[in-house]
Amino acid sequence: MARVFNFSAGPAVLPEEVLREAAEEMLDYKGTGMSVMEMSHRSKMFQDILDDAEQDFRELLGVPANYKVLFIQGGGHVQFAMVPLNLMKNRKAEYIVTGQWAKKALQEAALYGDVRAVASSEDKVYSYIPDCTDLSIRADADYLYFCKNNTIYGTVFHETPNAKGKTLVADVSSCFLSVPEKVTDYGILWGGVQKNVGPAGMAIAVVREDLIGDCLPGTPTMLRYETYAAHGSLYNTPPCYNIYICGKVFRWIKEIGGLAAMQKRNEEKAALLYDFLDQSKLFSNPVRREDRSVMNVTFVTGNAALDKKFVEEAKAAGLENLKGHRTVGGMRASLYNAMPKEGVQRLVDFMAAFEKREA
Ligand SMILES: *Cc1c(COP(=O)(O)O)cnc(C)c1O
């Protein structure tokens, strides 16, 4: 069996230790004689898995007691709808548009109310983070929304936007648990788990308690944060196996030393690749330097045919999923928590050899 170095943006690489452990427990979880997939979600065994996962997540992120941690089916796009459905009392919201995911979130919210882009970097193909220190936020706006790490374009907010006292909502899908967060800066912090935490199809939302309760009229039961909060994410059958894998990933991060240790590792990995890009005569990174993402590193040769050749040859060398998003082209290496430094070193070595060959 040979595992590749998988640079996919999502679903993405998971820690090998976690996959091995899950494989060992596949047929017989802790002497139950069944897989977690086959277990009642009302069993004590599963309740323990869920409770431990929530506890470890809270510890890792330092979630205060007045925030709920909710495990919600449906991934990112369901959160695009849940945020406005649960927060839009005045039917007004402000969005910072730094990429396709923020734009789609805005478009979804526009189904329910009066939504504005108060800042955008669309003018330069989302290659930078706009200044968000003094945004024109309406006095009766329900919230300010932003996407912290822009998976497709390879940018990240190094400074939290100034919400001027309004509720701040963040999509942290592609930087989830990669760095420490100050949870109290946010009303809602949510992430789809398939980028950095677990299998696809689920989001974890950290929601301040006072924001839970009022929804727009007609909001479906399963799209109310209250449903998840009141029933400990067990109103209906939850994505049990997904929660189980996420729980293992939380423990893996704790064993490494938590989010500060994770951040250090991630910054070292990204520096390896950016340092190479900065001296390369063939490859370049199209993002404004101070806004570079630590998780998703984009690069181009400036020649689409050569980009294609690079991606093909890299694949043959065991470096997979380096093709950029279909809307932007070029290349993208996603360096999530579970990507070992060795994988990034192999990529850099391969790029240097490719550059030499093509020069
Ligand atoms: C992938 C991604 C999404 C979309 O997630 P789905 O689970 O496919 O709906 C949203 N936001 C960000 C930042 C992402 O990277």
Fraction in helix: 25-40%
What is bound: which ligands? pyridoxal-5'-phosphate
Number of strands: 13
CATH superfamily assignment of the largest domain?
Type I PLP-dependent aspartate aminotransferase-like (Major domain)
How many domain units? 2
What is the CA-based Rg, rounded?
21 Å
What class do helices, strands and sheet pairing give?
alpha/beta
Q: What is the residue-mean pLDDT, rounded to a whole number?
A: 97
CATH uppermost class of the largest domain:
Alpha Beta
Poorly predicted ranges: none
CATH topology of the largest domain: the name is Aspartate Aminotransferase, domain 2
Number of helices: 9
- Summarize the helix and strand pattern as letters: EHHEHEHEEEEEEEHHHEHEEH
CATH level-two architecture of the largest domain = 3-Layer(aba) Sandwich
Gap between N and C termini, in Å?
35 Å
Q: In this structure, how is the largest beta sheet organized?
A: 7 strands, mixed
Strand order, sheet with most strands: 2-10-9-8-5-3-4
* Rough outline: globular
Give your account of this protein's structure.
The strands form four sheets. A seven-stranded mixed β-sheet has the order 2-10-9-8-5-3-4, with helices on both faces. The chain has 359 residues and is of the alpha/beta class. It has nine helices and 13 strands. The mean pLDDT is 97. The chain has two domains: 5-16 and 257-358, Alpha-Beta Complex (Aspartate Aminotransferase, domain 1); 22-255, Aspartate Aminotransferase, domain 2 (3-Layer(aba) Sandwich). The longest helix has 22 residues, at 258-279. A hairpin with a 4-residue loop joins strand 6 and strand 7 (155-156). Helices cover 35% and strands 16% of the residues. Bound molecules: pyridoxal-5'-phosphate. One of its GO terms (molecular function) is pyridoxal phosphate binding. Catalyzes the reversible conversion of 3-phosphohydroxypyruvate to phosphoserine and of 3-hydroxy-2-oxo-4-phosphonooxybutanoate to phosphohydroxythreonine. Pyridoxal 5'-phosphate binds at residues 101, 151, 171, 194, 236-237. The modification N6-(pyridoxal phosphate)lysine is found at residue 195. It holds the Pfam family Aminotran_5.
